[in-house]
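Design job #97: recover the sequence.
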């Protein structure tokens, strides 16, 4: 992770807009199809903390999603995510409150496995700005005294792997399932999301 002294929200927004520009060529064709909506997901988090080991974290999040189709079997997927969760502390694990905002851009291809099931698989890049607060470990097994660490913030670029499966609900709305793994390129941090989304 790369420490940041500026405003994480501003840096996150600027970097995400830069990533979105990767998808710009997909928006220029006459037959493009843009769909957008929201996604609710159950997430598993792994944090690489410089002060020591951490426990795994989990949580729910609400995200934005956009799908831009620029071919029969090709599209670009954009996600915007906001997460907040707590990692448990122990004598060895650094507990903390974590909040982050970020997004990602992925290229996906359709797999025509059967006549009725045609999932999408893809890969891309993600950007996240994260703050870590209330960092501490317990100094003894009795869990009565804490050793405190300073708050920190960091930004990160991650590799994304994802898979989606969708069903037409009606003429205007589609329902989909998505699984996405985000793996940091600078440390061992990762996030696994499994969720359901609706797009218009």
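Job complete. Output follows.
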């Amino acid at each position: 992770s790369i420490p940041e002294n500026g405003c994480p929200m501003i840096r996150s927004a600027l970097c995400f807009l830069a990533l979105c520009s990767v998808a710009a060529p997909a928006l220029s064709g006459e037959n493009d199809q843009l769909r957008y909506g929201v996604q609710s997901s159950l997430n598993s988090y792994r944090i690489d903390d410089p002060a020591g080991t951490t426990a795994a974290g989990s949580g729910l999040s609400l995200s934005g999603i956009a799908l831009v189709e620029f071919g029969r079997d090709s599209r670009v997927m954009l996600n915007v995510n906001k997460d907040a969760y707590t990692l448990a502390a122990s004598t060895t694990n650094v507990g903390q409150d974590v909040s982050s905002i970020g997004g990602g851009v992925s290229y996906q291809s359709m797999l025509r496995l059967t006549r009725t099931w045609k999932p999408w698989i893809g890969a891309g890049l993600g950007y996240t700005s994260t703050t870590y607060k209330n960092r501490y470990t317990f100094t003894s097994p009795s869990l009565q005294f804490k050793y405190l660490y300073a708050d920190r913030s960091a930004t990160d670029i991650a590799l994304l792997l994802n898979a989606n499966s969708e069903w037409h609900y009606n003429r205007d709305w589609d329902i989909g399932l998505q699984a996405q793994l985000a793996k940091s390129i600078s440390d061992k941090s990762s996030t696994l999301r499994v969720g359901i989304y609706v797009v218009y």
